[in-house]
């Protein structure tokens, strides 16, 4: 068990809530336990609002600034927070803070650059705004030498007639979702203050350029804007905090290279 | 551009309680039928069972031997979802794998039950199955292909919510219904507590509780006793996409018998127990260990892959179970309860069900509302591709 004192931002103040939790519990597990425990309690004892959905790093809703670092709460284990860890993106690892009784202090704040609902619940709206409408969330899955998918009667056009206005024809081979879960950690970690589409949107722009060569020109035009790749200051904090190893900084670099190649 | 026609507007305000999959689909269905919709969700949208479910798009094969009607409905609904929300589905099909002799003996009954349910399952040679997914246990005895897939539970529900919002539905997250007002046997409105903890009275003519495992609590606000059993299930994800096809055991539904790929993860599930409250349910170490062992039987090597996460979700079983074993016996079907006879005219509860059939659940609830109001409006939610979840 690990004793933790959570300091959770709620407007101008912090709500402090303590408890003992298993070391392999995540910050989200702990909040859920505290919330269940406070059911029916007076408003002051309640856990400030937070977002969550899948609890395994796929939905991208539970982003928060955990001890200074934009993180998904569902993947942040208390044991990891009890070890040295950077207090800001790209910063050096620092010993954790402890309270007077030796309890681990964990500070939770909302992601910046989002729309704050209440407590630490912030939606990463600005991170998603620049994602091109035509960008598909699906991509081919690597076959890794495996056999092609077998005949499938449910792909027959009669069973699955196309609807007017459908975004894109469904891919026919092995498919999977894109890695980016649109959680907004990259935008929250990015120090750029000038108008900027942001790392998540530029990663999507580059993914769409790679997947849909017919859109390459329009994607490069987006990336070339003053708020596109040129606004990136190469801090690479986006790639450091990304929970899905999307490495948005790499996508921005690829866009820069493509733009340079086009200029020649 | 998402712009479906609304044939006529009805001067009726309907409150949907619950911002999970069924509430999301119901808000959209009712808005598309021309009603004024208010949706209340006490936490973030999809923060209950919906977001935490296993993520399997069920062809219905899993249920076919036990219940042909449920299986048929799953098959119909997967085809609709693949059309209206393709971006939230990794559709690659699935394999039911017989590892033991008794599982091999189950194949003929399984395939014929699928075919009788409209699911085009077919046995494929073991060599073909292993060429499709070499991760399958080399001890594989028989294999059946089915049209299963993977859902993004959050993006599926969020797409329905975005559609409802585009049609003018008033969707309120972090807003809890804390009181229900009934007079002369009819529902009149309620009290809600918003994100800032302030309470406010709201009026509505009809209330539908689509709160899954929380239905008992919402019912109790109106003095009703709702027969629902929160039945938690645990799932474990490891890093690495072991397969593209969903892998299941060729056996009657049990624990730890489905391996669902999703993005760069592989997820084994589930277990089933029962709980008094759906809140704060966490997986136990014993469940996690059990699932890892079971996953290795389907795909040896699962337990050697890096551990990623474990979590639990409370299924909303319709009915009451006194024990875990009784819980598995409760059907995965859903029902709409009309509380008129209990003195709360205008209130309905949607109980049971599962993610794949969220649209059918919504249709049944919206049909019940239309019947109550004596309004004739057909369900049209199968007709239009949904807008992006990013619009929510």
Describe this structure in words.
The complex is a heterodimer of chains A (264) and B (392). Chain A is α+β, with helices and mostly antiparallel strands. Chain A folds into two domains: 2-123, Beta-grasp domain (Ubiquitin-like (UB roll), Roll), CATH 3.10.20; 126-263, Alpha-helical ferredoxin (Fumarate Reductase Iron-sulfur Protein, Chain B, domain 2). Chain A has eight helices and eleven strands. In chain A, the strands form four sheets. A five-stranded mixed sheet of chain A has the order 2-1-7-3-4. In chain A, a hairpin with a 2-residue loop joins strand 8 and strand 9. Chain A is globular, with a radius of gyration of 21 Å. The mean pLDDT of chain A is 93. Chain B has 392 residues and is α+β, with helices and mostly antiparallel strands. Chain B folds into two domains: 10-55 and 152-227 and 319-392, FAD/NAD(P)-binding domain; 92-148 and 229-318, 2-Layer Sandwich (D-Amino Acid Oxidase, Chain A, domain 2), CATH 3.30.9. Chain B has ten helices and 20 strands. Chain B has helices at residues 21-32, 61-64, 68-84, 101-116, 126-132, 153-166, 215-221, 285-298, 324-329, 358-373, and strands at 13-17, 36-40, 56-57, 89-90, 94-98, 122-124, 142-146, 149-151, 170-172, 176-183, 186-193, 199-203, 206-209, 228-239, 246-249, 258-262, 265-269, 307-318, 334-338, 347-352. At the A-B interface, helix 1 and strand 11 of A face helix 3, helix 5, helix 6 and strand 18 of B.
């Amino acid at each position: 068990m690990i004793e933790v004192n959570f300091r959770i931002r709620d407007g101008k103040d912090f709500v402090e809530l303590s408890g003992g939790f298993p070391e392999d519990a995540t910050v989200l597990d702990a909040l859920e336990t505290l919330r269940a425990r406070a059911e029916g309690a007076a408003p002051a004892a309640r856990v400030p609002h937070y977002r969550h959905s899948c609890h395994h790093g796929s939905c991208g809703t539970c982003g928060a600034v955990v001890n200074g670092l934009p993180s998904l709460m569902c993947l942040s284990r208390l044991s990891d927070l009890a070890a040295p860890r950077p207090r800001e993106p790209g910063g050096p690892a620092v010993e954790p803070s402890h309270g007077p009784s030796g309890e681990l202090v964990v500070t939770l704040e909302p992601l910046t650059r989002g729309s704050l609902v209440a407590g630490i619940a912030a939606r990463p709206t600005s991170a998603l705004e620049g994602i091109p409408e035509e960008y598909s969330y699906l991509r081919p899955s690597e076959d890794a030498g495996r056999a092609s998918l077998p005949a499938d009667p449910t792909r027959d056009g009669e069973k699955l007639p196309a609807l007017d206005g459908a975004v894109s024809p469904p891919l026919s081979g092995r498919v999977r979702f894109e890695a980016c879960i649109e959680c907004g950690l990259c935008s929250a970690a990015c120090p750029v203050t000038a108008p900027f589409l942001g790392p998540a949107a530029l990663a999507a722009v580059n993914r769409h350029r790679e997947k849909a060569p017919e859109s390459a020109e329009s994607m490069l035009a987006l990336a070339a804007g003053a708020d596109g790749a040129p606004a990136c200051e190469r801090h690479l904090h986006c790639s450091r905090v990304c929970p899905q190893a999307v490495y948005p900084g790499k996508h921005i670099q690829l866009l820069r290279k493509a733009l340079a190649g086009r200029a020649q | 551009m998402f712009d479906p026609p609304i044939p006529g507007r009805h001067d009726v305000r309907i409150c949907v309680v619950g911002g999970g999959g069924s509430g999301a689909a119901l808000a959209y269905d009712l808005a598309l039928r021309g009603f004024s919709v208010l949706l209340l969700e006490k936490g973030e949208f999809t923060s209950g069972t919906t977001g935490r479910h296993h993520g399997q798009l069920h062809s219905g094969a899993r249920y076919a031997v036990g219940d042909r009607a449920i299986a048929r409905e799953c098959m119909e609904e997967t085809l609709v979802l693949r059309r209206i929300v393709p971006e939230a589905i990794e559709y690659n099909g699935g394999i039911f794998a017989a590892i033991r002799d008794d599982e091999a003996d189950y194949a003929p009954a399984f395939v014929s039950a699928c075919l009788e349910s409209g699911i085009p399952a077919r046995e494929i040679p073991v060599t073909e199955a292993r060429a499709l997914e070499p991760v399958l246990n080399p001890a594989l005895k028989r294999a059946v292909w089915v049209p299963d897939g993977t859902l993004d539970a959050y993006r599926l529900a969020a797409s329905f919510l975005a559609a409802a919002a585009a049609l003018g539905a008033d969707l309120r997250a972090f807003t809890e219904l804390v009181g229900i007002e009934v007079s002369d046997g009819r529902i009149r409105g309620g009290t809600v507590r918003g994100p800032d903890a302030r309470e406010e009275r709201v009026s509505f003519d009809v209330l539908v509780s689509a709160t899954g495992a929380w239905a008992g609590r919402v019912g109790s606000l109106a003095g009703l006793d709702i027969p629902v059993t929160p039945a938690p299930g645990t799932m474990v994800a490891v890093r690495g996409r072991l397969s593209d096809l969903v892998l299941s055991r060729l056996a009657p539904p049990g624990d730890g018998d489905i391996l669902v790929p999703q993005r760069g993860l592989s997820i084994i599930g589930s277990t089933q127990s029962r709980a008094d409250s759906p809140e704060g349910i966490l997986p136990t170490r014993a469940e996690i260990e059990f699932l890892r062992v079971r996953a290795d039987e389907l795909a040896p090597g699962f337990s050697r892959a890096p551990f990623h996460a474990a979590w639990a979700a409370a299924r909303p079983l319709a009915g009451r179970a006194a024990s875990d074993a009784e819980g598995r016996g409760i059907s995965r079907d859903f029902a709409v309860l009309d509380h008129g006879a209990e003195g709360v005219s205008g209130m309905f509860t949607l109980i049971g069900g599962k993610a794949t059939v969220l649209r059918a659940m919504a249709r049944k609830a919206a049909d019940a509302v239309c019947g109550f109001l004596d309004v004739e409006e057909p369900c049209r939610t199968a007709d239009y591709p949904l807008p992006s979840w990013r619009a929510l």
